[in-house]
Amino acid sequence: MTEKRGVILVGHGGLPQDCPPELVAKFKRLEGARRDRNLPASAEEIEVDRTIRMWPRTAESDPYQAGLESLAESLRPFLKDRTLSIAYNEFCTPTIVAAAEDQIGKGITDITVVTTMLTPGGSHSEIEIPEEVEKIKQKFPEVKVEYAWPFDLSKVAGMLQEQIETVQR
Predict the structure, then answer these.
(1) Complete DSSP assignment for 1-31
(2) Dist CA 68 CA 83 (whole Å)
(3) What whole-number distance in Å separates Cα of residue 57 and Cα of residue 149?
(4) Which of 48, 52, 112, 55 is nearest to 80 (CA)?
(5) What is the dihedral sign for C-alpha 72, 149, 2, 106?
(6) What is the pLDDT of residues 22-32, one digit of tens each?
(7) What digits encode the pLDDT tens for the residues 75-132?
(8) What is the pLDDT of residue 2?
(9) The whole model's pTM is what?
(10) For the chain, what are the domain ranges?
(11) Residues 6+ apart with CB under 8 A from 10
């Protein structure tokens, strides 16, 4: 049987401009209290997180989401036979695990997770995304799941240099 391969492009996720600030503040308060005590998320935190993630979005209300979708469309032709999905670390859907579950449901047996967060030192790329990858591996041990990170910073620098050259012409 031929291995079916997938890629999950992970963006940070943004808050829609019309999401009530008090809802965001409540989420941050609940999340902060949980992290301070190193506890699992409460039912209330899970519900507030779900409400924010499921908030209706447009390109105008969430330009970050629109930007990640545009990046995905630019990446898609380079992936040849791989199925591409988008996921978000926070504030949007689907989650990384949900994107993986969707791919696995379509018969994908080899998943590469890649983030748009390019530099080392961030908790999302260094801690949270690897934790989500580990959850996928535990839930689906028959599926190969790899995290394409950290990035080769010399290649990132080269990409940035190319961008600098386009504006300095």
Answers:
(1) -PPPEEEEEEE-----TTS-HHHHHHHHHHH
(2) 16
(3) 29
(4) 112
(5) negative
(6) 999 999 999 99
(7) 999 999 999 999 999 999 999 999 999 999 999 999 999 999 999 999 999 999 999 9
(8) 73
(9) 0.93
(10) 5-15+63-167, 20-54
(11) 86, 87, 88, 89, 96, 113, 114, 115, 116, 117, 129
CA atoms within 13 A on the CB side of 19: 24
CB proximity list for 152: less than 8 A, separation 6 or greater? none
Distance (Å, rounded) from C-alpha 8 to C-alpha 85? 5
Domain 5-15+63-167, CATH number (from 3.40.50.1400, 1.10.4080.10, 1.10.357.10, 3.10.310.10)? 3.40.50.1400
- Residue 83: strand, helix, or coil: strand
Sheet-wide strand order for 5-11: 83-88, 5-11, 110-115, 144-147
Q: What is the band of 1 on the pLDDT scale with cuts at 50, 70, 90?
A: low
Query: Distance between CA atoms of 85 and 54, rounded to whole angstroms?
Result: 17
Q: Do 7 and 58 meet the contact criterion of CB atoms below 8 Å apart?
A: no
Could you tell me where the DSSP H helices lie in 9-152?
21-37, 43-53, 63-75, 96-105, 123, 129-139
Mean pLDDT of 150-165: 96
Kindly report, residue by residue over 34-59, the tens digit of the pLDDT: 989 989 999 999 999 999 999 999 99
